[in-house]
Amino acid sequence: MQPWQPLLDWWFGPEAAAGEVAAARQGLWFGKKDQQDRDARERFGAWVEQALDGGLAEWSAVPDGWLALVILLDQLPRMIFRDSPRGFAGDARAQALVSEGLARGLERDLAPIRQVFIYLVLEHAEDLASQERALYRYRLLLDGAADAERELFANFFDFSERHRAVIARFGRFPHRNAVLGRPSSAEETEFLQKPGSRF
């Protein structure tokens, strides 16, 4: 077994159709539960620390290892260090890894539901060019989706559009300001009072 396999098994569960995987794992991916955060820390906290320190680079040689390393840098810090600046500490390295991997075409060997978590790194970036790349990639997933899975991938595309709109307007995600110690503008403060302003 490859060293990263326990992480992929935990994150995605058994191989299945995209709709089944998402139905089973949606709460883990996008829910906010203390027990899930503790579970992430207990199972993979040491790997997250290694990844944040620049380690595990050898994983990125192959698609599944690349995906696992990206998840360690982008998704798990947001759980393990929730509501802390360290939650975003892996973003720069994750973005670099995604750019390198896409240039090598590594995403082509990943199932579409797994590609979602590569493009999510671009969607998390406070950078309009990255947002445009994310939107393009989610559009490709939607265009290639089977009829039974179009709604699922349309939802991912919709969220990408919403993230892009925020970055196009503000150049950053205002909902991160408090955690990162950034003052909010009057326009951002007003925006944060609206439903759907926080992801």
TrEMBL record:
<dbReference type="InterPro" id="IPR010323">
    <property type="entry name" value="DUF924"/>
</dbReference>
<dbReference type="Pfam" id="PF06041">
    <property type="entry name" value="DUF924"/>
</dbReference>
<dbReference type="InterPro" id="IPR011990">
    <property type="entry name" value="TPR-like_helical_dom_sf"/>
</dbReference>
<protein>
    <recommendedName>
        <fullName>DUF924 domain-containing protein</fullName>
    </recommendedName>
</protein>
